[in-house]
Amino acid sequence: MAKEGGFPFAVSVDDGAAALQVISSDVTNFAFATPRGVQDVTGVDKSAIERLLLLADFSVTLNGVFNDAANMSHAVLKTVSSTSTVRTVTLAVSGQTLTNECVFSDYSLTRAQDGSLVWTAPGVLANGAVPTWS
Amino acid sequence: MAQPFRIEPAMPVSAYKTYAISAPVQTHTRPATCAESDCVAWRNGWVTTVDVSTELGARQAKYITSASGRKYTMTEESGFARFEFLAGQKCFWEHRVPLDREPLLIVRDGDWRGNPTGRRRLHAKPADWVEDFQEHQGNLDNQLRRG
Asked: CATH: 2.40.10, 1.10.3470, 2.130.10, 3.30.450. Which one for A9-125?
């Protein structure tokens, strides 16, 4: 397992040219939101097909600190607003890898109160398949 | 912080569960020198150009000339002041480097909209967090296959 920035995980995201880049050392936080399961999504207004589709619902939020070095977070994510592309996102932790095909909807930069420049990049699953670990 | 633009989730917040790994800057990094960060500005020197016709630019120029304590050569052109700093000086960026500290391995209810139940679990080991996530995704995959 790659280890970058002192943290025991590796996050990689496709850049605008679909080349996977390791940006772990820029990432301070990431979160994957996933459905709880069938029993929780079953509603009277939902059809069975909808329920099945929703099982594959998945979103990702990456947060990090600005870095404009080659192939790092800014170089990878700056094309989110101008390029409609499906990007591979991989997370490697403890020898296991989770691979997702995602569409990012934003790359938002913010100047924090302490003067640091931080970013947020939210994305959703693009291909409808439940992301599984390998 | 303002929320970025997101695709609205298909289900209510109570239908989601979040797996997160967090290494907040405040708790998982420390301030570092330019040398520790292998700062390009420190290594090669840098140029700062400010528009002295604006209030901000004037304040920046005043800071550089009277309070920054750095060595520079200044040239002026068309209302802009160009400060050229020699290599080996602390740049204007606040560098930080990671501490050798495990990130927070979080499993909680809800998604980015909130945690409706307040349930939140911290794993001690990355392998345990992965196993929890694996089992959850495996269950979803099984349910999807069963239809």
From this structure: 2.40.10
